[in-house]
Structures are given as C-alpha cells and as structure tokens.
Amino acid sequence: MTKINCILIDDETEALDRLESLLIKFNYVDILAKIDTPDKAVESIIKLNPNLVFIDVEMPRKTGFDIVKEVHEKNVNPTFVFVTGYNQYAIKAIRAAAFDFLLKPVDIDELRDALERFCKCDEEKRITELPQKLIKEYSLTNREVEIIQLVTKSKTSKEIGEILFISKNTVDTHRRNILEKSGKKSIMELLTFLWGKC
C-alpha cells in the first residue's frame, strides 16, 4: 500500500493527540506535522505538500474552510478531510470539495474506511495519469505504455504477449526499450519513481 503523508490541524490539543493515536495504528500513514495554530496551517501545507490533511472546522481567527480556500488559491491541492464535533458542517464540507467528513470523537472504523477509500482513489488517479506521464517524460510509444500498464497488473511477458497478440520476444524487446529510454533498471523502479512524483 502507498504511504500516505498527512498533516493534522486542530486548535484543540486533546483532539490532535487522539487523532494522532488512531493514525499511528496504520503503518502506511506518516504524520508530517500536528498544527494547533490555524495561522501556521497554510504555510505548513504548502511547505510539506501532504497527500492528506485532517482539518478541524471551527478554530480561532480562521475556519477550516478559510484554510482550504487559501491553499487552493496558492494552487496546492492536497486532499482534505474535515474533522469536527458539529454535524451541521457536513453539507458545507462537501461543497468545499472535502474528500470526507469525520465527527469527533473520531471512530477508528470510520477513519479506516476514509483511509482505504483515499488509497483506492489515489491509486486509480495514478493509473489514469500514468500513460501521459510516460509519453511526456520518456517519449514512450502507446504500445510501451500498454506493456507497463499490464506489468502493473502483475502480468508476465508471456501473458502480456497473449493479451496484445504479440510474441514474448517482442514484449521483452519493448521492455528493454522502456528501460533504455527511462534510464531505470526495472519497470517497477520506473513506476516507483513516477508515483513518487505524483
């Protein structure tokens, strides 16, 4: 499973600590920062560039919605999950393009569901963006991209050949060309490199 880098933002220390204690139970989650001052939130999100931001709604001087708006105005687009004790913010959170909305005290099963859905959406997004990245960055052909996509599905050269109606030797030739163009030792190294840049 892909590592999720996240930031936690809440003016209540107790709420921050509770969310942290739940998140550290998931070994694929890295907490980059815990922020209890809304004024520091925008700067930290831009600097640390997390995949996911857990953010309280009601905070002094700035609401969670204000922070989301400011971050988007800076053309930074992490995924936001609103965490609040007030159910009435659900509709506004959805309108603010929040990925999810969790009620305090956060339930570990609801948190797990949110994380799993995030991972699934993130993986689908990466796979969708992959062909254009490969074509743009390495001048790969459409056939080479097809082969990489099948490799991501754990297909062998023989299976890829059968799916694409070409010989195993032709698949292996394409695989060598991909590595030559990308300067990587293996297709998995290439994918890891690309996904790390997503």
How does this structure look, described?
By secondary structure, the protein is of the alpha/beta class. The chain has two domains: 4-106, 3-Layer(aba) Sandwich (Rossmann fold), CATH 3.40.50.2300; 123-196, Winged helix-like DNA-binding domain superfamily/Winged helix DNA-binding domain (Arc Repressor Mutant, subunit A, Orthogonal Bundle), CATH 1.10.10.10. It has nine helices and five strands, in the order E-H-E-H-E-H-E-H-E-H-H-H-H-H. It has helices at residues 13-23, 38-48, 64-73, 90-95, 108-138, 142-152, 157-164, 168-182, 187-196, and strands at residues 4-9, 29-35, 52-56, 79-84, 100-103. The chain has a five-stranded parallel sheet with strand order 2-1-3-4-5, with helices on both faces. Helix 5 packs antiparallel against helix 6. The chain is elongated, with a radius of gyration of 21 Å. The protein starts with a strand and ends with a helix. The mean pLDDT is 88.
Summarize the structure.
This protein has 198 residues and is of the alpha/beta class.
CATH class of the largest domain: Alpha Beta
- Uncertain runs are none
C-alpha-based Rg, rounded: 21 Å
CATH architecture verdict of the largest domain: 3-Layer(aba) Sandwich
Order of helices and strands: EHEHEHEHEHHHHH
Structural class: alpha/beta
Counting H and I runs of at least 4 residues, what is the number of helices? 9
**CA distance, first residue to last residue:** 15 Å
Give me the CATH fold name of the largest domain: Rossmann fold
Spatial order of strands in the largest sheet: 2-1-3-4-5
Total number of domains: 2
Apparent shape: elongated
Helix content: 55-70%
The overall pLDDT, averaged over residues, is 88
Q: Quick one: biggest sheet?
A: 5 strands, parallel
Proportion of residues in β-strands: 5-15%
Count of strand segments: 5
The CATH superfamily title of the largest domain: Response regulator
